[in-house]
Amino acid sequence: MSVTWLFDPLCGWCYGAAPAIHHLAGQAGVVLDPLPVGLFAGSGAFPMNDGFARHAWSADQRIARLSGQPFTEAYRLKVLGAAAGRVDSGPATLALTAVRLAAPADEVVTQELAALEAIQRARYVDGEDNADPAVIAGVLERLGMAAAAARFRSPDPSLAAADRARVAAGREAMRRMDVRGVPALILGKGVGARLLDAGQLFGPVDALVAAVAAG
Hints:
The chain is an alpha+beta fold.
């Protein structure tokens, strides 16, 4: 079963869905394709502000209850409370594209999910600003993804083009499937593709796997 996962690296709900996504990716017969949608990238990026910080922290507490994923005081104080911070997923999305391009063919999804998890934890657990390219490059280097980190630090035209193409594909998938937000799972390809209820990402993983297997 082909499963397209639409996400954004700075989406708290996508971070909350990570345990379910990792479980799903490990199932025999499931071909997972993570696809970023650029929710907070480009024109969707903006300076951190008190209103967004309050809204995010409130949502984060609900996500934590549903998923068990941690949102620490370090994140609340250093990221949401950063006067000069930005909500910008462009750098993280570019880094994930660099990981995909550098990874061996049989490890593309595994390495991208590992990089995404580390980038998310840098923000939500360690309180690091993962809108900062230097922070993200450091995350990749600590993961042993030196080639991806080097390419991310000095993006070439082909990396930029690949990144734009991925985001464009993600946004087109949202439009085609009438997706209103992320995370979202699309089962199958083409005419027979359908959306899975995103709420199942926050329920029993066995039920999620069964729903995906049922197509």
